[in-house]
Each structure stands twice: as structure tokens, then as C-alpha cells.
Amino acid sequence: MAYDVDLFVIGAGSGGTRAARIAAGHGAKVMIAEEFRVGGTCVIRGCVPKKLMVYASRFVDEFAEAAGFGWTVPQPSFDWPHFVAAKEKEITRLSAIYTTNLHKSGVEILAARATLQDANTILLSDGRTVTAKTILVATGGTPALHPDVPGKELAITSNEIFDLPEFPKRMLIVGGGYIAVEFASVFARIGSAVTLAVRSDNVLRGFDEDMRVGLRDALLEAGVDLRFGCLPTGIEKDADGLRVTMSGCDPIVVDQVLVATGRDPHTRGLGLEKAGVKLGPKGEIVVDDWSCTNVPSIYAVGDVTDRVNLTPVAIREGHAFADTVFGSKKVRVDYSKIATAVFTTPEIGTVGMSEDEARTIASRVDIFAATFKPMKAALSGRKELTIMKIVVDADSDKVLGVHILGESAGEMAQILGIVIKMGGTKADFDETMAVHPTAAEELVTMRVRRMRHERIEPDPMVPGMADGVGE
């Protein structure tokens, strides 16, 4: 059978655009459909605008710290509409670059919603149909509005948070995951009175326990009102804003309610059932190691598969798919030892296993950990602490995980990801010369083991000095 195209991609986000460009580079005729804006969640309403907002929030700390170093800074003020406009200009620029790169690769872009009619036919929202030998679904995820409470339509999600017409002076954020804590950190620093309602007894379920406790304390220090074991039961308008009734705690009146309780695979209404594609319990597309569904002509990559929901993972999956299907080489994505970051202030950078995870697979685990005030705090007066932790298989000396809470933790995690992926040992860390004075040098000077659940006490000395480095 002759098809209109070799590959049709539904969704022009990070995974879809990478797959389309690589497949076109292998000689395939490719179309890609996007119903919103080219660039997807990361560029338009996720990683990029969020990181710009994080940068904006951190100037508050810089202004405050400057006095300790001899600077006199006038009372700062923040212009929310100016930031929103600047953010929009930047993501528009990035979206245009994505579009240009697709065109340069020979990919035809369709500004339309696409749904499946069968295993090889796509219906576009303008009424046209396209046939494709291979179809790739890369529609990503969508914010989950949980819990389902009366008045939930008055709340917003992370899709709307970047374009609010006014800055909320009082905000309730529901959720304890990385999206919730990042926005809590950002809005508290910019000047909102933030309440964070978390169903469990701490934030960031699944992260290393010391990182969770450290970030909890940092959020409290930043002025976030943490309410654990507490969820909304209803939202209604009143004369002073939005009145939110809560289970397990008192009602609260705020200007804005942000629900950040996770994301669901964006599969509803795509016609997947009609094409015979198997879905999982959350609506995720079930795929094999090569991103192929149970229908041989239909593949899926990125958050829509609910494997590891990170932008770099979607990009890697899209690239591997294109190489496998159109490049005549089988490429399987390795999901182990993925470095990631939580862009709160202080931020978390992590790669590999947590302490609890390591104890499930290793007979003996050594923990090396340190807590200290950053060197800048000596003059700035900041109370913020840096926490570093190395998890080691005691029998093989292999480093199973590294976890950092502190400035530039995300940058350090990216480099550490290479070391952990290569199978680095604690001896490799110890034999590496330190760069002094830096916070990162603590990673190669740590010698003190600790027992499980032993509290990591702050070291009054600057990093590395305890071992005489720099003396």
C-alpha cells in the first residue's frame, strides 16, 4: 500500500520534534501535527518558563545578601506584568527556533489537532485525512486536577500559572511533588504568602529522605506555611477572595489556588481505542523497549507513556525511535541512573539510588554525608544549609547514588550523572583532587560514614577545610 507519508507525529513537543527531525534525516517523509504551539510543555508551559521564574525569584536573595559584602541596594520591587511579557517573548523565540529546525529538516508542520482513525490513518481537525506507514504519538501529559472537590473550576494548574494577569498576594498550592514545591519556593520569594497543602507527612515522596527533610526546613525558612495531612474539600468565592475548606486543618482565604498534584498522560480523545492501542490504568500508552505499542505501526514516546517523565528522557526516546525504525539500527533507552533536579531555592540535584532504595539491593551500604553553610553565608548572614550525601555499596565500593541540596545542585548532578553512569567508585571520588574553595569539593573530601537515620549535623567550617584543604 502507498502511504501519504512514512511517519506522522502527533505532538510537536521535545520528544516528537526530535523524532521527526531524526527520521527526516534518515530519509523519511515526515509530517507533524500540533494543536497548540510548537515546543510542547517544556518550552511553552513547563521547564523553560519555570526556570526563568526561578531566576526571577532568586534576585530577592541576591539583594538581601549584597549588604553583607558592602553593597547598598535600594528597596527592590517586582513587576509581574513585565516578567510575564519578557517570559512570553523568550518562549515565542524558542518556539520559532523549533519550527525553523523542523522546516530545515524537511518536516511538514500542520497546525491542527490529529486523531487516529485506524492503525495507519489520521484525521485532522480541518477535515483532512492523512495515511502514514508509521505513527508516533508524542502528546505528553496534562495537569491532573486532584482532588475532585466542589469549586475546583476556580483553581488553576501549572498551565495557567505563568500568565496570571495579577500577582497573587496569597496563594494556596496543593501538592507535595516537584512542581508544587518549585512554585511554592518561587512565589514565596517573590512576595506571595504561600500555603502548601500536602496529603502526606512530607514533601517530595520518592526522593532521598535527607533531601526531603532539608527542603522541608528550607521552605519553612522561606516563609511557606506547610500543612501536612491536609487537602481541600471545597473552593468558593467570597468577598475577600477564594475561601478553601480543608480536611485536617482550618479553612483558608487566598487570591489563587494552584493544584499541582501531578500530571496524567494526554491520551483522551486521540482515537487510540479506535486504533486498538492498549492503554494502562492511568491512560498511559503501553509500549515495549522500542517504544512500540501493541499495534505494530503505532509508537509512542515521552510523558504519554508514563515511563520516566522528564524532557531529556522524551528527547532520548524520540531519537532512539527514529534510529530504530528509520535508521536501521536498534537503539534501546537505558532508564537507569538518570540525573535530575528540583529547582527550588535551595535546589536539589540527584542521581542514582536513594539510601532506602540502595538498602533493598545491597547487603551493606555506606553513607557519606555532610551539612555545612556555604562560604557566601559567612558574610551574607544567610541561614541556608548545603547537604551532600553519597550512597555506596560497601562490598563493591561502587557509588549507587549522590544527592545534593544547595546552590547549583542541578549543575553538579549533571556532571555526577556521567560518573555514576560509568560505574564510579568511592575510591574514584577520593582520588580526585578538590577544587578549593567550592561547595563541590566536599564530594571528593568526605570521609565520615554515618549510620542509618543518624542526623547530619552542620559543619561550622567551610567546605574542605575540615580536611585541611587550602590551609
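The record above closes out task 2.4. Task 2.5 opens with a second protein, given below.
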Amino acid sequence: MTCISGVLATVLPRELSLVFMVLPYLVSMIAVLYLFLKQHRRAPTVEERKRFTLSLNLLFWLFNLSGFFLGLLWTSFSEPEIWQYTIKMLFQPATLMIIGLFFIVIALPLIAVTFWFYGKQAERMALKMFGHRY
């Protein structure tokens, strides 16, 4: 799913590409909760919510970083100097500031949505599926 979303993100306009960047995260978040509910027959505890939130966000950023480096690798076949240019630009203060803002703008909402989804929404789903919350 991530590969398909990544390919579509490169073809579509920027606004839609952001949706396709986050779509695999949302699908995996829902799938993991569904599997957890089926297996444990209860909503996650606060500690489990924190662990799921941290794990899913870590995977999200690792997939995006791997996509970034695979894109660089792919580009380096035709332009070998792209690595030197990227390293030089990556450690510029302005670039680091943009990366930090990008991280905050995407990570904080994902953390909030995931923590909420594995809390109140999970309780509602467990109540509907099994007739109890815990």
C-alpha cells in the first residue's frame, strides 16, 4: 500500500500527495486497532495506547525516511553529485528549520489522532463489538 501511495503522490498535485503520504498510516492504524480488539476483546489501556502511538509514528517516519533515501539513490544513478548536494543542503540552518516545522506539522496531529483513536474510539468500537469497554 505504501508503494502505491508513494507512486500516486508523485503524480498528483501537492495537496493530494500529502493525503497519500498519510493514507497508509491511517489504514494501518485502523487495521492494528481492529486486530487488537478481535484478539483481546477490549479497548487498549493507557500504556498500550502510548505504545501504539509511538510505534505507529516511528514506523511512519522510518518509511518516509527510507522513501527519501531510496529516491536519492534512484536519482544518483543519473546524477552522482546529488549525494554531496543533499548533504551540503541538509545541514543548513534554514533546511533544518523547515524539516523541524514539517515534522511538527505532521507528527503532532498524527500523535493526537492516534492517541484519541486508540482511546475513545476504541472504547466505542469495543462496546459495539463486544458489549463492554474493558
